[in-house]
User: Fold these one by one.
Assistant:
Number 1:
Amino acid sequence: MKLYFTLVGASIRARMQYKFNFLFSTFSYGLIMVTDFLMLAAILLRFDDIRGWSIYEVGVLYGISSASMSLYRVVAAEIHDFERYMVEGEFDSLLIRPVSPLTLLLSRNLDLNRIGGVVQGLSILGISLSHLTALPTFFWLLWYLPVALGTGLIISVSLGLMTATLAFWTHRIREFQVFTLYAPTNAANYPVSIYPGWLKWIFFTVLPVAFMNYLPATFLLQKGGEWYLLVVSPMAALLFAGVAFSFWRFGIRHYHSTGS
Amino acid sequence: MSMIEVQDLTKEFKVYRTKPGALGSLLSLFSGEHRRIRAVDGISFSVKKGECIGFIGPNGAGKSTTIKMLSGILHPSRGRVSVMGASPQHRRKYVAQNLGIVFGQRTQLWWDLPLRDSYEILRKMYRLEEKAYHRFLHRYHDLLSIGDFLETPVRKLSLGQRMRADLAAALIHDPPILFLDEPTIGLDVMAKESIRSFLREINREEKKTILLTTHDMDDIERLAARVVMINHGRIILDGCLETLRERIGLPSMIEVHYREVPRLARLDRVERVKAEGKNVTVHYDRNRISPPALLAELNRWGEPVDIRTKEPEIEEVIRRLYGEQADPRSKTAPAR
């Protein structure tokens, strides 16, 4: 853990070498997030509810999934950009250290520009919560939020790691990310119950985004769920992380490297 | 004591016919359309403590692939590797603690940070104690003058400085084994020489076991007591430098530019003389005639204004070793 912070510190200092670039990209990224938020507000305000979920209830789902997705982009920036390591053969240098390659990868870069996305998600969450104080389960909801964000982060990182692992065979992963990351996390912005059966099945199994917000919300927002779903969801996330990690280990064994 | 044991080591790569796009490349994995390339084909050797081995061969011969299997980066398709008694694949971290690796074409240092920061990070990575770390800084300042540019960002170092910095970084945890992949590539003569004398020093004084790949025959002559030559994934020669010399001699080339068109005379003990106007190129074997003796002969032909000597390429050496029996197989691509 100490090593992780040393390495993260080094990556931030390296980034600060290009101060102007850093400030400019943070600023422009923040601007993008603001417009994104305005768009969403415009859309949400036109609808009263989606299949029995009010805008504020959808806002809770949206806040959790988008904040945890952005958090994933902050802490696991290099997993997200993993194809670079395959294409440029840089992965070799992670395998010659007495430290796990995953630790080295995670510590190489914190994409602080993406913090804007986390703030945006949390703000939407805050606004939505302020309209839901009448719920009998409101305090449950407040208590559960950190767990929900943790669950969301674990699921996002696991999805990212599984997608990155594909690069051991295909080198390129950008196209996969659309299906395995962007699409499911965007879908999780809304209640999973609105999707057709086969898609629902996918969101509970191979791309288990339903566990990050929808499933616990069925209890927390009184949609017929039971309290034990609050335990099941983080458990499912951990299980999925285990699967993703095994797949990653399997991928490393098949790493081909590049000629020098 | 045997530091490295390699038995029947083989690495095959499947090369798929790829279709464009990531989805295409995934589909082609299942289409079964592929050919197998055997980058390393059943090689065996063992390395004793304190040996310095030159690993040579043309591009794509399997040198890098072998080094990558020895260091745990790649998993062998068949055969056995053991480094300090352990499999680099199964006990990767243990082997990494005992191994220093330099890839000449790629730095292991943190590009944007001062060199000192890279050493601080590596020190934590290898759990080095304060005292050992200071000993390291002093020792490698004496040997490689790294103290002169400790505060300079790595991206601003010259290639020669960077290579010295990289070598020191690979040795920070004082590993008994050192793998060097093209350690002198791209360096000028002075820088090459300082790297070589450093490597000789740590090989002789500290009994570090060194395995280096190179394209430079000079590296081999100055450093390696033992040469392993590899071509098409197989070892075609494993012996001391003298064995290599006996088999191929010391092929060299000299180019002389004369003030006037030279008066050519018969020259014994050389292989080939090519004259074009005022230029003369002579291919010769340093075992049979020494360069000064040859120059003395060439001086009689006229007044030289420019003289250049060239060492043979590894490819030339291999060609000589095989004579005219060229390998019919097409050249294998590098590991990919």
Number 2:
Amino acid sequence: MGVLNAASVVIPNRVLAGVRVEGPDEDTFTLVVRAAKLLGRAEVTSGGPVGVPRRIHILSTLPEAWANLLRETGAFGTGQLVLEPLHSAAVHSTLESMLAQDPGEGARDWVIGARVSGESGTPGIPSPAGAVGLSFASGGGLGVSLLHAIRSPAEGRGDLTQELRRWLGHPPWDPKAGPSQVWWSGASLPTGSILSGTPSGNPGSPPPPPPLPVADVASPLRPLAVLVEGATELPTDASFGLWIDWGAHHLTVREVRRHGPVSVEGLPRRGDAPLPLEPAAWTARDKIPLQAVSEGAYVSDARYLESLPFRWRLEADKCGNCGRWTFPPRGRCPHCGETREIDHGRLPEMGGVLETYTVIRKGAQPSEFDFMERALGSYAVGLVRLPGGIRLTLQIADSDPATLAPGQVVELVLRRLYPQEGAWRYGLKAMVRRDLPLDESVFQPSPPPPPSAPAAPRRQRARSPRTARAAPEGAPAP
Amino acid sequence: MVRGQRSVAVVGAAQTPFGTRPESAPRLLRDCVREVLSSVDKGIAPADLGAGYLATLGFGGWQLGDAAALLAEEAGRPSMPTVRVENACASGGSAIRQAYHAIRSGEVDVALVVGVEKMTDLTSRRRRFWLGVSGDTEWERLAGLTFAGVYALMARRYAMDHGPLEPALAAVAVKNHANGARNPHAHFQKVITAEDHDSSPLVADPLRLYDCSPVSDGAAGVILARRELAARFTDTPVYLVASGGGSDHLALQDRESLTSLRATREAAQEAFRASPFLPKDVQFAEVHDCFTIAELLALEDLGLAPRGGAGQKELAGDTSLGGSLPVNPSGGLKAKGHPLGATGVSQVVEIFQQLRQAAGPRQVPGAERALAHNVGGSGATAVVHLFSR
């Protein structure tokens, strides 16, 4: 902290977004990817798009070996990935090393800190809620913000939450201290304001507590954060988007994510009651024995890994002859048979349209998805039409099935799909963009298929005596 | 080739009762083979059999590999060449098609086709695994979809194109249950009402429990013979006059239409082109109603109803026994039951009995020409067979 305190850091351009763990299909890996994609899409109003960072620090529980998997997601461009362990010392040394750099023109580093409370690394155990913090540094400054929302009061000393509280000048939180609280702060920003998606903007949410006094915060890490601690009820239908106008230096924060009603309903359940928030309180029955899952549909590691370019990055073929897209890529155009003139590209993750969907009801799911059923009761799967006419079969993430409708616009996010043989398999799911209007084009009737059977036989009719007898009166003449 | 001239005769057909059966898969196979052999009017000797086709998914893995040898054994002709045919729910129809081709090629005179499936002796988890093995694994299954889910995607799209669907789905369920109540071999021999359908729990929106065929045990078998040899076995054969097959992408996402099965259309087209009669000449049909929506799609894809008009036909009672085109007089997959490998063969057992005017209380009066339609998975494969007296 000393070095940080001494540094007089100006934060001319900073992007901050927060992502919260919503369901049992999210974990550190998906959060980091989500964070990177949000950053990649974010815009610095004074400086255009964020662009590709030179280096990306990822402070998390992910082992270093996962760098390759992270890269496969296509979310990190060509930036150097530095995976570092998640504890205070590592956080500080990372920040210090960043501060020590000459923040020259074009110097762009990202820091993504991710932590899922209670994540044990054991597949099959649904993760409780957690959050990711991320930040973006650009040009002549540095910005670091750690946004760490947790629902589990099992956090101990020295974790990121407490660090953040210290940086914010807030006394350490005692889990026994009392009721849940939802609070945020932006008071020390020169002209900062949090304009959208705060709990106060949502009727029915708990009234926002007053901004914390942060004037005495010595840290240059400005308290630009949303912090949700131990809440049993999170802001209803909140977007965690922050839109901050900071004088001449615009900070545009596009989180982007909207939640449906969020409450403990979305958490793992034990029978009819919510599962306790503390994983330590879970019994063996709350965990899903993995070996029982492995009898499920089998996709070998080799196939899984070779499919990642199209599963995660939506790589597809475009026919050089007829111009149509094929997904997944097959090296052969199914429409015109072209095999040589095949171009490659990536389908867009944004702008898909939900064409049709279903809700797999409790008890009807394939055995691989018992963990979803346990956590959510039921889940939705739909066909999403992407620009270019490609359809994808995707689970629909974070959605109350009752709110789904054909025509909804979705974006694709990486989530846990299912566990197999001790490891999670990840894939894309669709997340409904409730901020966008319905795409009515899906309501155009399907084009009629060609006729099923010939209205009249094409060949000359010749009848055997038996069939001639069987032919009814009025049968078409030969 | 002269259309219909080289047709193949069905000279024997029988099935075990469908339902939750106490017998094991090998036992169902044994019982079925005996019944099929004894169903031949003038008798048949094991030595008469030239080839055997076993249709089974091997549900539960009871004998996943090389199971066809068991058929030869049970038929009393252990050296008979046999093969297992697997096209998911279309295994039975596909096995009949293989036998049909073998006989028409002149290589085989008489073929035994048996379909068998034992589905109810698994734990819930294992059953849910096996129920999904025939859908597209990488995209559909591993997005969490079930077969009901895939058909539900089609149903919702169908409703978007053609309007409210639930009354028509209920009509299919009510009608097929009514037929099943007249079939002593049916899994469900119970009449239901539209209210029963509408109040049953959702399985995969918009499909309800009563839109789904059951998980059943059972076996069904037929004996096919070269037409010229039929008289050796029976005086009242039923003729398999044309066969058609078709395929489509395994995954729904890759198909051109969500409301029409190309595999069915291709199969119907091939069958009718080779047949002496047209769709309008079909007097009744056994179609693949694994879900109620599937019966609507089938009627349209087979050319038995106009596009978008199958529901109206169902609601008007045209497809009921006594209607202008009875569909699934056996009760269909919905009520008779759906033991995967046995299903397509069982359709032919029904047609054999109907065309011989031996279907008892569910007899389609004066039936002379019939169609069997068997679909694999969610429409990745399909077989259509045409029969005449």
Number 3:
Amino acid sequence: MSEEVKKQRPAPDPNSAKFKLGQIAAKAYSDCVEAKARGEKVGWCASNFPVEIPETLGLHVCYPENQAAAIAARGGGERLCSESEGEGYSNDICAYARISLAYMKLKDAPEQNMPQPDFVLCCNNICNCMIKWYENIAKELDIPMIMIDIPFNPDYEVSEAQTAYIRAQFWDAIHQLEQITGKKWSEERFQEVKKISGRSSRAWLEATACAKHNPSPFNGFDLLNHMAVMVTARAKKEAADAMETLLKEYKENHEKGVSTFRAEEKYRIMFEGIACWPWLRVTSSGLKDRGINMVTTIYADAFGFIYDDFDGMCRAYSRVPNAMCLELARDKRVKLCKDDHVEGLLVHTNRSCKLWSGFMPEMSRQIGKACGIPVASFDGDQADPRNFSAAQYDTRVQGLMEIMEENKGGN
Amino acid sequence: MAVDELLAQFHEIAASPKKQLEKYLAQGKKVVACAPVYTPEEIIHSMGLVPMGVWGADQKVGEAKKYYPAFICSIMQTVLELGITGKYQGVSAIVIPSLCDSLKCLGQNWKYAVPDIPFIPMTYPQNRKPSYGIAFTKAGYERVISDLSAATGAKFSEVALADSNRIYNEHNAVMREFAEIAADHAVSAAQRSDVFKSAWFMRKEEHTAMVKQLNAELAQTPKDKGKIRVVVSGILADSPSLLEIFDKNEIRIAADDVAFESRQYRTDVPEDPNSLDALARKYANMDNCSVLYDRDKKRVDSILELAKRHDARGVIVLMTKFCDPEEFDYVPIKRACEAAGLLNLNIEVDRQMVNYEQANTMIQTFREMF
């Protein structure tokens, strides 16, 4: 029997964007642990809750969705989902929620731990499932729940009535948090936060737009990892610095003709939906092995939060994925596909996400038509490994590739 | 009219919404479809239009599969199916609220799947109680009014709405009264369902008149004892096959927490000089429902209270498959029932279900425990 020889990975460059972004993600957890140890109140926060609020108030929060993704990516998804199912939660419920509710009970998951919450910050611009999930946490742990309701917008523009409703809730949330934590809102600090968030956003938008180059200077799977920092930490100075580093690297890659996509880029696709975290390697290599680079996702557009004032911020949070009408959601994707010379669309029909998948068949038909590209979909799940079939994925990707090949005039 | 004759009339209406639609259209009335869970029917009524509920049907899904993935509830799937296959032909518009994620998708799919029936969105706030929430509800109603006018040419007046608010409040009262009477008199689960279901397909003043008559007749009949009294909770409880199992096993629905039934009638429009403000305040006052934000899970307490008040021995949850708001609430309901010593059952239901054997076994076993 021969001993396995492990390849020595080169030490990560501490000045690289990847390293910096990884550090930010890890620090978010360790900061929360330290804050809790100091006796500060820490929160669990929905991914699209206006991050400007906890950041301006100087609160430490961690993100159950990120934690669930991390647990799922490290192989713990099924174990925690089953734990929740044992409590009576249906296996039809979002797997992030099932993992999080199980974690609330177990209070330990070696894949990714985080402190238990003293309050929860909920925002339903991603889905109404979020409300139910956080209600159950708040009730069971008997902790305050700050609820910002950003309704699904059936219109292309955000109405004055919706802006006013959101604005009032933002202030209500701020005042509730001041009372709960004893920390104070500072307009000066908000201006700083807004400026840093704008810096991060501009760098992110410009970096992801580098996909317009052929070949793209990056593998789109990078975005699935980096977007977590954009969602949760974009108002931190370190995040703005890291995003600017990312942009610089992508520009340099383009100039040198290199890419983080470690294969010949034969086809360029858009990936639709949340990643299949338990099957990240399978889904990634299924593309890479065929020379398919996922050059863009809606995340490329979604997390560019650029606004001028408080009302602009309210409107920005109404224009996140899952809060938009089909037409706006479609047009944003069509623009990305056209700007980035996309040749095919691969849709993840995500068992966990009714809202993301519930009008995707119609929207993807319209995107395919508008861009003249083929569309393929596969069944999967963001965190429950049981809802994915590698064989189906392979067949669908192969089919998509064959049509893209035919469209290129190949055999 | 005898109780049986009246109940037969309710059954006839509940079983043939298409006939009701044709009747109203033949009278020259315009009909507006109302999707689950709450729509401002009072507004539609006040504009001289006929609101009719659309909660899908017990049938297979074919065409709607082009729009919805399989893991969306069968209520949404079959509403879309019926729309695509022309069963709502003649309807002037559909009002779809965005109270759950699948409803949000129904509105978006509807525009392309059923383009000849205009989609009118009703966006309700979840933070419905503060003044800013009430203002947002009112803005949503104003949008519905404007879209209804565009779709039908009908005009809105606050005076007419005040009348409709009164008509709906009166209907609420007779439905609440019916639920109480049915808890103690010889009304089968299927008949009880007919009374609730028919309400969705009639102008409320007509339904009120019929239910009043029924209530009066039923009150004259002797109390019906000796059955196992339960509270039923869920989105829907209208499947004839399932209700037959209740009746066969002598299970009496002593009260319900069903969205299609009593949840509609708990809250009246309050007194207010402005009828539209009053209607917005009605929504603000609504509670105890899985699609309405409920930090304290007051719904769970309300179910226990309902069971206590009606001397129920258990709670039967009819879980609409893929309805995540209800699925999240089930766990606290189950725990609360266990703590209170109430038996509880969770029966998964689906509009595409044809085999109720599992439900039958569960209910039989439940019955044998008493």
Number 4:
Amino acid sequence: MSLAPDAVIYMDNNATTRVAPEVLAAMMPYFSELYGNPSSMHTFGGQVAEAVHTARCQVAALLGADPEEITFTSCGTESDSAAILSALRTYPEKRHVITTRVEHPAVKNLCENLTAITGHKYRVTRLKVDAEGMLDMAEYEEALREDTAIVSVMWANNETGVIYPVEEMARMARQRGILFHTDAVQAVGKIPINLRQLDIDMLALSGHKLHAPKGVGVLYIKRGTLFVPFMTGGHQEHGRRGGTENVASIVGLGKACELAAAKMDEENSRVKAMRDTLEEGLLTAIPKSLLNGHKTSRLPNTANISFEFVEGEAILLHMNQQRICASSGSACTSGSLEPSHVLRAMGVPFTAAHGSIRFSLSVYNSEEEIAFVLEKMPNIIDSLRKMSPFWKG
Amino acid sequence: MWEYTDTVQEHFLHPRNVGEIDNPSGTGDVGSLACGDALKLTLKIDDKGVITEAKFKTFGCASAIASSSVLTEMVVGMTVDEAAKVSNQDIANALGGLPKEKMHCSVMGREALEAAIADYRGLILPMAEGEVVCECFGVTDLEIIRAIRESNLRSVEEITNFTKAGGGCGKCEGALRNLLEQHAGIGVSRPVAKEKPRRMTALQKIKRIEEVLEREIRPGLRKDGGDIELIDVDGDFVSVSLRGACTSCSKSQTTIKEYVEKKLRELVLDSLIVEEEQS
């Protein structure tokens, strides 16, 4: 098999993913003949409610959860907000929150603005990470206090793929009666998860990161966890989230979870092997390149590599010329003038952070694509370095 | 995805005049690795003061590379005096425009050109003299004031887009707002006064200022058919009026701030602020 000349080589799956053909097929009837409202009394609506229930069971199966612990939302960000704000409303006397310095903006910006959002003063502990992006468990233990309302730590980092020990961290929180929430948007579908055995109280996931469409997410709420809805309204989702269900997307997400469970082995073998080939190939072929993030405690699909003395946006645009899609943590692409907060928290020098590129693969990538990227990247970096006043090559 | 014009993309993908001139007549080195963009501009200038060659090396995003590339095309064939008048807006215009968040790339081009010309003329770049306001990106008050005036900036966000100041930790936002309040819409820049290192009576000040004007400043201005008159000294504020050819010169503001004020600060008192009295 060889690459079509106009093929797009998509290695930006931590940003979003292709909707799986099987997912789209499952959704289509709910855009046309099956348009009933799941809340209706008639059979016509009732069959749609059944489809939503099936999806709930499929999601629950992937997470090792019970269907009634699954609440559908509009996206990962909504799920994160709902979880954290619910905890704060449930325990209004507790005014302390623990999170990390490397969270996704969905959690980071919420935690940084709690006072403005809630009207109450909160103390927020933002746990540090080391050079490989790992947390210091002693610092975490020290931070757990009597007035801690909730701990929110991502399962896996979107930029580096670093996996955090949320199982252990949740256990430590539970021992002290503290709620634990995890943003698992990047982890779900990539690594096995079994919530039944864990002390995680709430978990957020997003459909479009695992080959379902954009605009649908899930908040897992462990049975017995007190919950105050983020969106009040109708009785949908057992009263946990008002608003008529986004049926087609929910059905798609259910199918996507079923597929993810079936492809979990492939993700952790073939995809991981491709990632390793890409990563080792780039680090070997291109001098002054370095890996960002822990080598092993990492998602199987993510490689974040810094190419020193060149700038990420320029690299991405040259890659774009070759129809290779990826992301960068550089200032110019972060929407601000400073490079990614994740890389800065890890102490990656600015010289390297500006030239960081994230490759994130999926089961839809091929070995040919990896070879193509390995062939093109050295020239791209070389041509930009020749232009760089700092490159003494 | 940034909205880049075809010209920006073309210059980015096929940059002109990449490299470094051996034994250049002038070199401009601005930016740094930490800031995320940097530009080294080298110029070859003939004995008639015409730029015959320009080369660049740039670390930065697509618009930084494109700004550098188009700049080298613009200045070749210009006299140094003409090149000194190239503004960041000229660079952005030559590219068919830049996204507003990327205007600082054109400012970097202009700064490198200025630095290269100053180097050629054996002058010290005046902009580096100010006080650093934005510590993240090392931007001085003088640079910010100049951007506010030249590009008619009206918000802190615009200052960040043009100079990068305030784009890091954001601690200097208050200082930027102060600079805006003081300088937006006002023709005269008024740098933050420093602590007075020594005291002088008003009379001593006036005498010394007159001496320096006569000895150091007037001879240069008269050569170009201009002159300068001391109007008033009020505390640290020195009002002057330019005469003759200087009054119609578009660079008169630059003359006052970067030449007169610098000299007076150096030779009289380093807290002096020179303003032009509008006649």
